[in-house]
Design a protein that fits this description.
Layout (H helix, E strand, L loop, with lengths): L6 H7 L3 H24 L1 H9 L32 H29 L2 H24 L5 H15 L2 H12 L5 H8 L2 H16 L6 H20 L35 H11 L9 H5 L4 H29 L4 H29 L2 H22 L4 H31 L11 H26 L4 H17 L2 H28 L1
């Protein structure tokens, strides 16, 4: 007698071929960007090893430093009193190169095969991350070497974000994009956590391995990307998603991120896109004309300033204020990224339910400001306080950042004014994230300059940036509120008509 089909097989058969391929694309792009962020994180953990209090350590017998030398355990050139400024310069070399390269990267991302573009970028990023760590084994003590490696790595890493968002956008329509991309965007925090934990394994011994190992993993993932990434659903005979501008969507669809009536500017964009049967890559200025791109780009500048300051300086802040070891500081800092995972998912879920991307970001930014103030003043008073407040701050700081760089970028890149021309997605994503990356470069630089005057001043700078990010969304929030009122009015009118008919 034959047994009935196993329950697990019933579950497997319930998913269509399209669903399996879409799930695979989400998974592989998740791993790709996890590796990108994993390779960025070690520098923040290793900072506290490059310059520390040597009086607490036992000096090796064969050490050539004098008995009164209090910097014998530090790594030149970061053994001087201006080490914070030098470490800030190393951070800034990466972030400025990343910000500049991002504006160019989106243009290349639209015009080159994404599989080649991503795999090449990952191989180069893995190489430069490893070269930074090899400075330890090669006994390199000149600042220009570390700065040059960071510049090259920053440029290589710009291949990542526009390409993965464009690839995911090719496979997924609007639907529950906020929730899907909120979960998917946890790769940022997962990468930060893995980077911190891997770096922590070797930070107190051979800190060079804190870079070499993540670099090798990133390069390996680049080979996997070359072998398995699928750019378009049509390449494997899957059904493409429905983007904005399809026949089923009206001109005043509430899915518009600005949520207002289409302007003449939108109509102009639409007519230009509809002239050609085959979509063409959008220009930089054309992408800027999409409603909401400028506001969200500037908002992300300040939101990313806050997020990346935490990314690069939080372990050192915990090391200096709470007096934990370098490894423990790095491990504790991962709780901020755990909060980031929760915040990204919450932001996506809430914005899908309310159809209010800007309002969701604005509320989270408003709540983040007082929480950062509280963390600085009472967050180190006990381990429980520190754990809870790091998770809450991570959720509120990274929630808007996650939403803007994923769902909002994909919404704007497939905006109804483009009449289904998803070719704009890579350029729009690069503009938004490139503008945000200017803030990512400014934040750690300012933190390095301000921190010698006291950590309180660093937090005041972060709170000010958070408030500015919130203010920049006011116009879009107002439009969303008007759209909600209009929708409620239509619903009431429909219910009254139905009642009258009955």
């Amino acid at each position: 007698m034959r047994s009935s089909l196993a329950p697990g097989v019933w579950v497997l058969r319930s998913f269509s071929r399209d669903s399996w391929f879409r799930g695979f694309i989400l998974l592989i792009t998740f791993f790709i960007y996890t590796c990108y962020h994993m390779s960025r994180k070690p520098i923040s953990v290793v900072k506290s090893r490059l310059h520390q209090n040597c009086s607490e350590l036992i000096k090796p017998i064969n050490d050539s430093h004098s008995l009164n030398d209090s910097t014998w355990c530090n790594w030149a050139p970061f053994d001087k009193s201006n080490y914070k400024e030098l470490l800030g310069a190393v951070d800034n070399a990466f972030l400025v190169a990343y910000a500049i390269g991002m504006f160019i990267s989106g243009i290349f991302g639209e015009r080159l095969p994404l599989r080649y573009y991503l795999s090449t970028g990952m191989l180069l990023s893995g190489l430069f991350t490893s070269l930074f760590g090899l400075g330890y084994f090669w006994n390199i003590h000149v600042l220009w070497y570390f700065v040059l490696i960071q510049i090259c790595n920053g440029l290589a890493q710009t291949t990542g974000w526009p390409a993965v968002v464009s690839c995911v956008g090719n496979w997924f329509g609007k639907g529950k994009r906020g929730l899907i991309m909120g979960v998917w965007n946890s790769h940022t925090s997962v990468g930060n956590i893995l980077g911190s934990l891997l770096a922590g394994v070797w930070v107190n011994e051979q800190w060079g391995l804190s870079f070499v190992v993540p670099g090798a993993i990133t390069a390996t993932m680049g080979i996997v990307t070359f072998l398995f990434l699928i750019e378009y659903p049509e390449d494997v005979d899957c059904t493409p998603p429905q983007h904005h501008g399809g026949p089923e969507e009206s001109e005043d669809s509430p899915e518009d991120p600005g949520n207002g009536p289409s302007s003449n500017r939108e109509s102009g964009l639409a007519s230009r896109c509809s002239k050609d049967a085959e979509p063409v890559a959008i220009s930089f200025l054309g992408a800027l004309q999409i409603p909401g791109v400028v506001e969200f780009s500037l908002c992300l500048l300040f939101a990313k300033l806050v997020s990346y300051t935490f990314l690069y300086w939080l372990p050192l802040y915990i090391f200096n204020v709470a007096h934990f070891s370098a490894k423990d500081s790095g491990d504790l800092s991962t709780l901020f990224d755990v909060g980031g995972i929760v915040g990204g998912i919450m932001a996506g879920l809430i914005s899908d339910y309310t159809n209010g991307r800007a309002t969701t970001c604005c509320i989270m930014l408003i709540l983040a400001a007082p929480m950062m103030f509280l963390y600085n003043h009472i967050g180190q008073s006990g381990i429980l306080n520190s754990v809870v407040m790091l998770i809450v701050c991570g959720a509120l700081v990274n929630g808007p950042y996650s939403l803007i760089t994923t769902a909002v970028s994909a919404d704007l890149g497939t905006h109804q004014s483009l009449k289904g021309n998803a070719k704009a997605l890579s350029t729009v994503t690069a503009i938004i994230d490139g503008t945000g990356s200017i803030g990512a470069a400014l934040g750690p630089l300012l933190a390095g300059l301000i921190s010698p005057t006291g950590w309180n001043n660093v937090f005041y700078m972060l709170i000010s940036a958070d408030v500015l990010a919130c203010l920049l969304l006011c116009r879009l929030v107002y439009k969303e509120i008007l759209a909600w009122k209009s929708s409620l009015g239509r619903d009431r009118g429909s219910s009254l008509v139905l009642t009258h008919v009955r």
